[in-house]
Design goal:
single chain; alpha/beta; 6-stranded mixed β-sheet; 5-stranded parallel β-sheet; globular
Length: 266
């Protein structure tokens, strides 16, 4: 019944040790052997997602930047791209500068920041991706950005999200991939938009898709998929809209979904 499986990376595909377990690797290999298209759907940049795709031997388009970029893992061809609108970028850059917020931008799959600090160092270590410090950061306002990301205290980011939505309503989609990561993308650049596009490219009906995630930024993808699955460690809001709740990322939750709904061994 199911032909496509889209999996979030952080706290979904990988466990708290930042690893894909052997059990999950084998389950996904078995799914692909049964003709299921397996892809990753992440807030991470393409270069970071490609590293995980290589571990799984995936040679398919990857959903990255929360859905604003779909790019082949093999030849790197861009299939779907929605950049942050320039007017919205201008407002966000100005807002962050005035409020002393850490902002980072992603242009041509390169991560840029204005200054080196603990926030970008921790982020770089998590995603296993280098970054470039560019003091003349405002110059990037006029360049197409796949995503803008603000890092700060979770409660503060909740307030920032409300303010930014009032300033640029309808132009962007604002979400969180983690409590301290506020992600800003094109309003048609969500994981749900990307999953619908990718399923169409393969000729699959959305009822034939499974989406698995744990965070706020997975909501649109779970709503779009035929079967929306929340991890056992997912945020409460995602569990409320999910069709099914699997085990946690430390209990091979992805493997459980494959075994139950694809291989039907449990």
């Amino acid at each position: 019944m199911y032909k496509m499986l889209a999996i979030d990376i952080d706290d979904t595909l990988i466990n708290d040790e930042k690893e894909i377990t052997e059990g999950t690797k084998q389950a996904l290999a078995d799914a692909m052997a049964h003709g299921v298209t397996v892809t990753l759907a992440t807030g991470r940049m393409y270069a970071s997602a490609k590293q995980l795709a290589a571990q799984l031997e995936l040679n398919v388009p990857l959903i990255t930047y929360n859905g604003s970029l779909v790019k082949n893992s093999g030849d790197g061809q861009v299939l779907y791209e929605q950049c942050v609108p320039q007017n919205a970028a201008t407002i966000i850059f100005d807002y962050c500068e005035r409020n002393g917020l850490h902002l980072q931008t992603y242009i041509d799959d390169v991560l840029y920041v204005k200054e080196d600090n603990d926030k970008i160092k921790a982020y770089s270590e998590l995603s296993k991706i280098p970054y470039t410090v560019y003091p003349e950061f405002a110059e990037f306002i006029n360049k197409p950005s796949s995503k803008l990301l603000i890092i700060d205290d979770p409660a503060k980011l909740d307030e920032v999200a409300v303010e930014l939505r009032s300033l640029i309503e309808g132009q962007v989609h604002i979400t969180k991939s983690k409590p301290h990561f506020l992600e800003i993308i094109h309003h048609q650049g969500t994981k749900g938009d990307a999953l619908r596009y990718l399923a169409g490219q393969f000729g699959y009906d959305m009822s034939q898709t499974i989406a698995i995630g744990d965070g706020w930024n997975d909501r649109e993808m779970l709503e779009a998929a035929g079967l929306g699955v929340a991890m056992g460690n997912a945020v409460a809001g995602l569990k409320e809209i999910a069709d099914y709740i699997t085990l946690s990322n430390n209990e091979d939750g992805v493997k459980h979904v494959v075994d139950k709904f694809v291989l039907q061994t449990v």
